[in-house]
Specification:
Blueprint (H helix, E strand, L loop, with lengths): L1 H85 L6 E5 L4 E6 L2 E11 L3 E4 L2 E4 L5 E4 L2 E4 L2 E2 L3 H10 L3 E4 L5 E3 L18 E2 L2 E2 L4 E5 L2 E5 L5 E3 L6 E2 L3 E4 L9 E2 L5 E6 L2 E4 L10 E3 L3 E3 L1 H10 L5 E4 L1
Parallel strand pairs: 1-23, 3-21, 9-17, 20-22
Antiparallel strand pairs: 1-2, 2-3, 3-22, 4-5, 6-23, 7-19, 8-18, 10-13, 11-12, 13-14, 14-15, 16-17, 19-20
């Protein structure tokens, strides 16, 4: 009996020891978890502090930029006031504020008409090592000509921009060139004829080709038939935007500039736009855009020789 009691007592002490050890281990585990949680909280607090500091720096820079922009606008407005005062002796002047995207017609020192417009977006495009900046030029100009139903002949940069938007390459089609209508890949005259129209070496081609015929772009079918491509419409193949020759009908876009345009020289002008939802914003490639109704009124009032002040 005494042995049994001693055994039971030892076993009880062992169980109690195990329980105490488990409790201690549990407490240590909980402490470790608490320490890890605190470390994570410290990390989160540090990240929040860093982000706040970064945001403060960004806001400070933005505020400084706004302040600088306000000063530039004040200087521009003051300069424009001087220019407008200089123009008061003229019979009529067209004044464009690129900061406000507003156009004014002044006569005898008074504003007789005003409208919302769009001006240059200020972005750049690098092409063949040449950097182009799409800004509306500032300074004094003259209305050199008035044009009804103007035709737009887009420069090369228009095709480059479209190709980049659609992640395609640019292929220029010159007289004497032949390209695959499906891929934009150049092919030879021999490859575009007869059975050669089915294969290009070991590479299969579409059998339809684009070429210049008498200064217009035509599509040649597998049977040799030709179809002239419509004017003023972007030519796209599977992987390329095709740039037609400068004098071809496919390079002439109708109704893009509205019904009226006032030319002020160096390729710049004041004209209508199809993108009326963008009026009031700096989105053009340099010209001043107006809604059709406003452009018609300005066109009626303007005379060749009128001064144009852009600031």
């Amino acid at each position: 009996m005494r042995f049994r009691l001693g055994f039971l007592g030892a076993w009880s002490l062992f169980i109690i020891g195990v329980i105490l050890a488990a409790a201690v281990a549990g407490a240590e585990w909980q402490n470790w978890k608490d320490v890890e949680r605190l470390r994570k909280l410290d990390t989160i607090d540090r990240m929040i502090a860093e982000r706040r500091a970064t945001r403060r720096d960004v806001l400070k820079e933005a505020e400084e930029e706004r302040g600088a922009r306000v000063e530039r606008l004040r200087s521009a407005v003051h300069e424009a006031d001087v220019k407008v005062d200089d123009a008061q002796d003229t019979r009529q002047a067209i004044v464009v504020s690129t900061a406000e995207n507003r156009l004014y017609v002044r006569r005898g020192g008074k504003t007789v008409f005003k409208a919302v417009c769009s001006t240059g977006k200020g972005t750049t495009l690098v092409q063949a090592g040449k950097t182009m900046v799409f800004e509306t030029p500032t300074g004094k100009f003259r209305v050199v000509s008035k044009e009804e139903n103007p035709i737009w002949v887009p420069p090369d940069w228009h095709f480059v921009e479209e190709a980049r938007k659609k992640k395609k390459v640019v292929v220029r089609l010159h007289p004497g060139d032949v390209i695959d209508a499906a891929t934009g890949e150049p092919v030879s005259e021999k490859e575009s004829e007869g059975v050669w129209g089915l294969f290009r070496g070991s590479k299969r081609v579409s059998g339809h080709f684009l070429k210049v015929r008498k200064n217009t772009v035509v599509e040649v079918g597998a049977d040799g038939s030709e179809r002239e491509l419509p004017p003023g419409k972007m030519i796209e193949t599977g992987r390329a935007i095709v740039v037609p020759p400068s004098g071809s009908p496919q390079r002439r876009f109708d109704k893009v500039l509205g019904k009226y345009r006032l030319n002020i020289g160096s390729g710049y002008g004041i004209h209508g736009t199809l993108a009326t939802d963008q009026l009031g914003r700096s989105v053009s490639h340099g010209c001043v855009r107006l809604g059709d109704a406003d452009m018609e009124k300005v066109f009626e009032m303007a005379q060749v020789g009128d001064q144009v002040l852009i600031y």
